[in-house]
Each structure stands twice: as C-alpha cells, then as structure tokens.
Amino acid sequence: MAGVKAKLTALTAELHGEFQAQTDAVKSAIAKLQTAVSDMTAHVSASAASGVATALAGVASATRSLLAALAPQCGGASTLR
C-alpha cells in the first residue's frame, strides 16, 4: 500500500494542483481501505470483510474517475471503462 501511496503522491506533484478533487478522492478512498483492512485484521468477521470490499470498490471508483479525467490529456479515453 505504501508504494501505491508514494506513486499517487508523485502523480499529484506532477499534476501541479490540477485534478486535485480526483486525486484527493483517491487518497481518501485509500485511507478508508487501510482502515477497513486494519479493522478486519483486528476483528475477523463477515461485516469486516464486507467493509473491505466496500472500501476496495471505493478505491476502484475513485481511480476510474481520476483516469477518466486524465484520459483526454493522455490520449487514452477509449481504453477506460
């Protein structure tokens, strides 16, 4: 997870404040996933596993939104779904 966060931080710096809403959403989603995984580690249960799945879906959604915003500049709009 640290590698993902480091790469997101580097991308955010490279964007110089552009797409801040999208990068902030990804950072927030990753933080929620970390919390959910920590909760599941402490208390293994179906509810905790569901929380991890929900948080993971949030990361995927936030990442899709960031990639969709970046696509016109990167020439990859047709590959995002």
Description:
The protein has one domain (about 1-80). It is mostly helical and about 80 residues long. It is built from 3 helices and no strands. The longest helix is centred in the last third of the chain and has 29 residues, at about 45-75. Helix content is about 80%, strand content about 0%. The two termini are about 25 Å apart. Helix 1 (about 1-15) packs antiparallel against helix 2 and helix 2 runs antiparallel to helix 3. It has helices at about 1-15, 20-40, 45-75.
Question: Secondary-structure blueprint of this entry?
Answer:
Elements: H1 2-15, H2 20-42, H3 46-74
Helix pairs in contact: 1-2, 2-3
Features:
mainly alpha; single chain; elongated; 81 residues; 3 helices; 0% strand
Indicate the overall shape.
elongated
Q: What is the average per-residue confidence, as pLDDT, rounded to a whole number?
A: 90
Overall tally of structural domains: 1
Could you estimate the helical fraction of the residues in percent?
A: over 70%
Largest sheet data: none
Number of strands: 0
Total helix count? 3
Order of helices and strands: HHH
Percent range for β-strand residues: under 5%
Termini Cα gap: 24 Å
C-alpha-based Rg, rounded: 14 Å
Structural class: mainly alpha
Nutshell version of this structure?
The protein is an all-alpha fold and 81 residues long.
